[in-house]
Amino acid sequence: MADANSNKSKERKVDEETLQRYKSALWLLTARTTDSLTTELNHNATPQFIAALTEVLWSQIENVAVDVEGFAKHAGRNTVTMDDVMLLARRNEGLEEVLKEVKDEVDKERGEKGKGKKK
């Protein structure tokens, strides 16, 4: 019994470490993007602003993940697909248009890769 609890604890710790790495990567990307934009606009952003913005982004990512996982589960799937992401964006025309463009590019690339393969 103690062995099972130990394994669960290790799994949670790995998950927490992975999440922390993702959050750190998001902070770095947010800091670089903010720095680039503020340089263009001749403004400054404090580390506190970058940290707060990172927290907002992280919260939004968590919400999106829950929603798309719910769409996939409702469809009887364990894997999130582009259709789930498109369903999430259905009420945001600008986002939906950008995602459609990305989807078209991905589909085109997959088509080109498939043409070169022999069956």
TrEMBL record:
Residues 85-112 form a coiled coil. GO terms for cellular component: FANCM-MHF complex. The keyword DNA repair applies. It comes from the Eukaryota. GO terms for biological process: DNA repair; replication fork processing; resolution of meiotic recombination intermediates. GO terms for molecular function: chromatin binding; DNA binding; protein heterodimerization activity. This is Apoptosis-inducing TAF9-like domain 1 family protein.
